[in-house]
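REQUEST FORM: STRUCTURE PREDICTION
Request ID: SP-0412
Submitted by: Lab K.M.
Chain count: 1
Length (residues): 424
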Amino acid sequence: MNDSQNIVPLDSVDNTAEEEMQNKRDAKQDMAAIIQSKRAEILALNLAWMEKLQNDKAQLREKMTFFWHGHFACRIRFAAMAQSLNNIIRENALGNFGDLLMAVSKSPAMILFLNNQQNRKQQPNENFAREVMELFTMGRGNYTEKDVKEAARAFTGWAFKRRAGEFEFRENQHDDGRKIFLGEEGNFKGEDIIAIILKQKKTAQFIVNKIYKFFVNENIDSSITTKLADDFYKSNYNIEQLMFTIFSADWFYDPINVANRIKSPVELATSMNKLFTPVYDNEKYMLRIQQALGQVLFFPPNVAGWPGGRAWIDSSSLFFRLKLASVILNKGSFDFDEKDNMDDELFMINRKQKADKIAMLKIEVDWQKILDQFSKIKNENELQILLLGKSLSPEQQKLLPEFSTANLKEYILSLLSLPEYQLS
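STATUS: Completed
RESULT:
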């Protein structure tokens, strides 16, 4: 046989392998585009809430939403779910704590984050049940491991419809056997477990303690919080009533409770943005500032949330905090790697930006508008109270430049660079 007869014409070669490779390349590109889109959505959500925290007229509701955001810590990369949970919290932030707890517990975001989608009869997942008690309601030490197991059985079947993004009770996956939880016995479902938890006065005390530490003082005064918790319990967990009691109490304005809390990074950044309305050339830099300070909205470090208090301050973060005024208001620079605990891909930082550790931010500030805003200030004490919440001592005054109309910009920057500005 002629050898030429064994040669297969090029146009008859099977192209299946090459097509498969191309399909894989296309699929990879499609997946990359989807991931990029999801990142853009979650970043847009972050920036939208920052703007709302700064400018929304319902500031107490936003502050309470921010508080509950840390209390019901949830970290997922699906913007629609994150936004839905954020809206649930906002809607119930000043309402009834029981309603808030139930709505959050049934949110797809929390069910996904705490693995209750995998919680089925004969194969219970205890993660959600444990965190509901330990972090959301009673606190550690007020339940047993048996209570966790029994609660997990009760929460079996709690799931969500993936396409609709709404809660779904899957009865065929629910353990309908009798359970014993916190001393009560019955054929409990998830709603029953939450109702029993709300019967516990420890729940009211746990919530009040956290609110007191966030709004009043890191050091809890038990003579105050015990009475607050008792009233909170008797009111059937009325959050608005609790906050009214706190804000109208004489002790809330006691010097020991004024300007004593270390501002969280988001509080620090929003307070400065609210006062001076800087315009960022690139909105992503606002996210990088959050990252550098150690708190990124929608991205708590774990289910326990941000620890707060003195945990906000270490050698590197304090340096950046004190420098923040010059970064935002005086075209300063900052190190992108400060508190670099979030992946750079999330922030869509390119290699050049990553290599440029020290970056000059393009931020425009209307200083004339700022100076006009403070033009009616008569003396340095008024300005100190406005920006710091209190007057400085004579010793602290010595650290500042001379106060005068001509020197107002320098004086403001100096005030914002003091450790006292870190407190609220």
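NOTES: Residues 201-257 form one domain.
Reviewed by: T.R.
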